[in-house]
TrEMBL record:
Annotated signal sequence range: none
InterPro entries cross-referenced by the UniProt entry: Polyketide_cyclase/dehydratase, START-like_dom_sf
Protein known as: Polyketide cyclase/dehydrase
Amino acid sequence: MATATISIEIPATADSVWQLMGGFDTLPDWLPFIPKSVSQEGGRVRTLTTSDGGTVIERLEAFDNRQRSYSYSIMQAPFPVVDYLSTITVYATANSNVARVEWTGRFTPVNVSDSEAEALFAGIYRDGLQALKNNFAA
């Protein structure tokens, strides 16, 4: 099993960051490369449209509003992995005006090496967290 973890500090309170990105169906609100999300099954499944027209279907596996965290699996996507499970969490820091967001995933690569799959998701997480941070730029 391969893994990828990326974190970033954002100049905002943990609660304000979570308010923007904590909903399972809110990716289009902060992630430019996901312009559309359609919620199904009472909000437990989201069908995402990527900026290049691709489709990704994900299932909410766990949600903890108090801990500002949720986990999801990929049901269908154009990625060379199976058994994908990812968690995104917003943490308060010692500075109440700075939050740390961590996006982590584990998955089994298919027809690619662990390092290739890890690099793919590390890039997705890094670009996604930078886009999230850009929402809080001065």
